[in-house]
């Protein structure tokens, strides 16, 4: 049965959950990656090019802009009001071209202070000259001011947990099975280290920009002003904007830097996804105890006792969506037919969504970690009953002692395998076995001193050295 819902639009409702249910968590990105933010950046680039080109003196005999006029123009993108956006929308209805609309908006304002300069608005520019620089500025600001602080916040939270739990012995599970103990803090440090490496990779990303005309050759530029060193002027302008100059492109900037950036963020996402699944598992094992918020929490609509680990489940799903979008961006943006096609135009409009789902996930993981505490009694009790994990250390000692002539034990691995695999193993079992081997007194005593909770190697030291 198809429900007979009315077909009219529901006013003021968002299609994407990023702009609906989760808007409060993702709203900071709209300052840099919304359509309005892109248009503001376009206006900024147009204004800066007009001022920069005049200040460089490339137009013979042209009177420069005085300071009040330059300030007036620079305030246009700074004060990008709703009225400005509406006026821009009107121009776009006329032009059917988003960048041309920005040009007309700037011409309208320039006519009030220097009408003699109107023909220099958007001069020597193709729309991609404006767009690539605008996107680079928007993405750079979004990553540095919104996404990265959230990522660093997660790493910081993990470091705090690593320090807090550095000395807490914990049973490991390799392949989901009982394995050599570690410490809870060391496991948190592993994730902090992995995520931190990706932040280091982020530091090495160059935000590239190009400004070289219709096919990257400065052809019209050279004909109009042959005395100008156009590559040098282009480089100066791109660097004036705080970007890295790309000297060789077609009509478009090749977007390779975007693919590199999104690959790093995707890698960060997938490590964070691993963290979310591990945190979920530690809750399932009882190693993490979920704390009720002051407002209370409903875990199940029918089972009153439950507190569901929804923060980590939400993060898993949103990281998968973010990574899928970022993968698609990486694949699409690096390909353009010959010197230009428009596949990148609509693709880049999804950058905000890709980062938005990641930002939402990071917020949920941090909130999830803030809402759990290690149940050290459960962790200790689980570990105390797992004497079989010591079989690894015992067989390694027997191998070494036999090899150096201090013992004579045939096939130590097989002996421990027969003793422990699929069987109960206790402190008494260990003592009986070790005392039956005829080992040197010092070696025997060292093995008899083994306990599951102390069999953690240098895990605390590794954690402390990482944190230092």
From TrEMBL:
Pfam families: ASL_C, Lyase_1
Domain Fumarate lyase N-terminal: 71-315
Pathway participation: Purine metabolism; IMP biosynthesis via de novo pathway; 5-amino-1-(5-phospho-D-ribosyl)imidazole-4-carboxamide from 5-amino-1-(5-phospho-D-ribosyl)imidazole-4-carboxylate: step 2/2; Purine metabolism; AMP biosynthesis via de novo pathway; AMP from IMP: step 2/2
InterPro entries: Fumarase/histidase_N (IPR024083), Fumarate_lyase_CS (IPR020557), Fumarate_lyase_fam (IPR000362), Fumarate_lyase_N (IPR022761), L-Aspartase-like (IPR008948), PurB_bact (IPR047136), PurB_C (IPR013539)
Enzyme class: lyase
EC number: 4.3.2.2
Keywords recorded for this protein, A-Z: Lyase, Purine biosynthesis
Stretches assigned to the Adenylosuccinate lyase PurB C-terminal domain: 336-456
GO biological-process terms attached to the record: IMP biosynthetic process
Bilayer-crossing regions: none
Alphabetical list of SUPFAM superfamilies matching this protein: L-aspartase-like
Gene Ontology molecular function: N6-(1,2-dicarboxyethyl)AMP AMP-lyase (fumarate-forming) activity
Keyword Lyase: yes
Purpose of the protein: Catalyzes two reactions in de novo purine nucleotide biosynthesis. Catalyzes the breakdown of 5-aminoimidazole- (N-succinylocarboxamide) ribotide (SAICAR or 2-[5-amino-1-(5-phospho-beta-D-ribosyl)imidazole-4-carboxamido]succinate) to 5-aminoimidazole-4-carboxamide ribotide (AICAR or 5-amino-1-(5-phospho-beta-D-ribosyl)imidazole-4-carboxamide) and fumarate, and of adenylosuccinate (ADS or N(6)-(1,2-dicarboxyethyl)-AMP) to adenosine monophosphate (AMP) and fumarate.
Protein name: Adenylosuccinate lyase
Species of provenance: Scrofimicrobium canadense
Gene: purB
